[in-house]
Amino acid sequence: MDLRLVHLCILTLSCSFAQDIDLGTVIFANVLFRHGDRTPLNPYPTDPYKNESLWPVPFGQLTNLGRHRHLLLGRWLRNRYEHLLPDTYSLYDIYVRSTDVDRTLMSAEANLAGLYPPKDKQIWDNDIKWMPIPIHTIPEKQDNLLAAKKYCPKYDYEIEKLKNSPEIQRINKENEKLYIYLTEHSGKKIDSLESIEYLYDTLSIENIFNLTLPKWTTPVFPYKMQKLASMDFKLPAYNKILQRLKSGLLLGEMINHMVKKQEGALYPDRKLWIYSAHDTTVANLLMTLGVFDEHCPPYTATVLMELRVNTKEQYFVTISYKNSSAEPTLLTIPGCLALCPLHQFVKLTKDTIPEDWEKECVLDWEQHESSINLTTIFGILTSSILMLISLVFMIIGFVYWHYKREHNQYYRRLTTDPI
Questions:
Q1: Catalytic residue among 37, 47, 201, 279
Q2: Can you tell me the distance from the alpha carbon of 413 to that of 123, in angstroms, rounded to the nearest whole number?
Q3: What domains are defined for the chain?
Q4: Which of 229, 309, 348, 416 sits at 20 to 30 Å (Cα–Cα) from 55?
Q5: Where are the transmembrane segments (predicted)?
């Protein structure tokens, strides 16, 4: 029997199971969402809309539509967790973390404006119905939790190994004509799933803005490009090693929150932990959980990891995914039901959470050797030769100076004796 059919049957059964039983009450939730709508990050060379002045905000920034979508998502979260959150903000109830990027920070702010409209004593200005709430972040290059951009040699080695694998090279080979076509018309070298996704993202945004796309895009956008762009979101967390190093810390923190909540040891005793991040963050977490359905996560795509308790005081975890304005879809991680007992959830995800991330990022010697390519070797040899030449000239200069000194090669007073 087709494995995909088996998986579909299991998913259908677990979904119907979840509908037939009491899901209990949510007592804590980890919420991860993508930022709202933005302008293109970096238009392609032949892009007729590459002049930034043609856009309402600079490249890569959150648009008014993006702000509004997150305001609405915040109101939706308020409605979902009305039983859990008091009407007024308290630092003991919620913690918000964002990547250190303008659009994610602004999305979090807009979201919180919908989640916590000020009431009573928290109204500090009658003309501004807004409550300032702290959003925590650290520089991207230091962030191995949410941005996942802190330097990790092992991850770089493994992702490069994947990109050069027969499987990915076969995909590139099969789409070689498309790559050449896109390269010729976009003016940018397109030779991988990553570069396809970059171009697809730009065209998608221009399409959302109702801009007329160049005629050359008609045969390839959106369908031919969309399939490959969606595939690209699987790569960063494609296998267990990549999952541990890319998304394992975030999943581990989320699980730690729920375990401590069950034990009554979460301090402060928060109800909601919000993460504002990117489409890749959403895809990586879903991949790590084994529930990613190949697609490009849209703006405000949201993952809900909720801790629930039933009338028998039993603790369960549910994973839901909200990728549009519709209600979220209940997902089922491999090896469990949609309503997964907390202890079993912990057991099933244990192999994707690193015990010591810094240590696991270190390359062993064989990997270190194979990661040194010819360009690196040439660079090392060139630097060494230049240093050697500089050293030789320094020695020659010193010897010449010493020779002049020993032979008294200095200016002398002119003699006045007759010749």
A1: 279
A2: 91
A3: 23-140+248-360 (3.40.50.1240)
A4: 229
A5: 377-403
What's the confidence (pLDDT) of residue 388?
79
| 35 has catalytic annotation | yes
Residue 303 CA to its chain's centroid (Å): 14
For residue 76, give the nearest of 329, 271, 339, 328 by alpha carbon: 328
| The one catalytic residue among 35, 70, 257, 278 | 35
pLDDT of res. 7: 46
pLDDT beneath 70, residues of the chain? 1-21, 365-384, 386, 390, 397-419
Give the pLDDT score at 387.
Answer: 72
CA distance 305 to 217: 39
C-beta of residue 230 within 8 angstroms of C-beta of residue 296: yes
First to last CA, the chain: 117
Answer for the pair 38, 63: CB distance below 8 angstroms, yes or no: yes
pLDDT of residue 252: 98
List phi, psi (to 5°) of 124: -105, -10
Q: Is residue 351 annotated as a catalytic residue, yes or no?
A: no
Q: The tokens 């200069």 sit on which residue? A: 397
In this prediction, residue 324 carries a pLDDT of 81
Non-local CB neighbours of 393 within 8 Å, separated by 6+ positions: none
CB atoms within 10 A of CB 149: 14
Could you give the 3-state DSSP secondary structure of residue 110? helix
Which pLDDT value is given to residue 366?
58
Query: Coil, strand or helix: which one is 277?
Result: strand
